[in-house]
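**Fold in tokens:**
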Amino acid sequence: MASFPESCVPSPRRIERNMTRRKSATARRREGMADNMPTRALVLPLALSPDQHAMYARLADLYNRVWGSAVSWYDANRTVNAVGAHKALYAGLRDRFPQLPSQFVCNALRDAAGAVRSWNSNHPKRGWSLRASRRKPTVRFDLRTMGLRGNLLTLSSMHGLKRQRFLLPSIPAWFDERYPERRLQAVTLVLDPNGLMARLTLTFRIPKAEPVEGRVLGVDLGMHVLYRDSEGGEYRYPRVQRVRRRYAYDRRTLQEKGTRSARRRLKAMSGREERFIRDVDHRAAKRLADTPGIGVIAFEDLTRIRRLARKGTKTSRRRRSMLNQWPFSQLQEFTAYKAAAKGIQVVMVDPAYTSQQCNRCGYVDKRNRDRARFDCLRCGHSDDADHNAALNIRDRAIQTLGQTQGQGAVNHP
């Protein structure tokens, strides 16, 4: 038997190190698979003692400084590569902020990458211009820096200090029932600078629901009716229009005053209006996702509508007015994650001519539609204009799904 030189035989220490690397690679692959799992967030209030508030305020200050340095690096290098930022910044940041535990530096680098990515996506004309000057006192904890057992939450603190323990309010029963197999992924702590309270956001991973088979539901979004679907369902919101008109009037009045107190009231009013709109969108999205017997929900692609709305035509002005009156993309986002929890797919279709095309014969003419009524000039078909558009959206989704799946998709009555 051939013998090998002693130097070629790996030592037990090297074998152990290689096995650790293999385990780490396996763990990374598992984490990558977990990244594809949907997440759900739960926001809870958290009361802090004066000492805890002071300590976490200091921790948040250091965390935000690291976060700001990372944002500047991402903007300057036109990248959101957190690995590259870690290689370039980690050692220097550890020297600058020795009191900040190393894992918080890593969390801040990843947190900043996500913030820059989100900013660039939401502000395509102002990309790579995120500024950290107005960031609230925020700290993000991952599995290495926090733990949750029952209602007992433990959070890491400043370097050299013990972990802090908090008894959380009970998890709402509806959250337990809806997501029984959830796993905690991260905790975000946002401090109130004017008091001893904090807002705690618990982010959970949940298993993907198995896809369900069912009908395709087309949904048309509108200005006077929030949505009307292809099966005749609708979500009217006359109170919403009244509330928004009142907010618009109050906003104009306060802007004309221009005083410091008026600006404070404007900021508070903006928050109330945003929360009101989010509540309406949540309710409408839940109603869509709870429609019995559906397997697919189809919307118009709003990104394409926004591009069409820049062309300056009469139709584009109507589209632009619709988009400015309500955050429809938020409604689509809420519907997508509520539907995903039930195994329902959400698809986007080309919005071109959905409001002008006759669903009966396919004839396209802008004169077919007169405000809320649709009367085809070719075949004489009459319908509610929004319902006709929802049927067109449904049919386009069926056609798209049939092409991607290699078979026809049919709606069953």
In short: DSSP finds eleven helices and 15 strands in the chain. The radius of gyration is 27 Å. The longest helix spans residues 260-289. The mean pLDDT is 84.
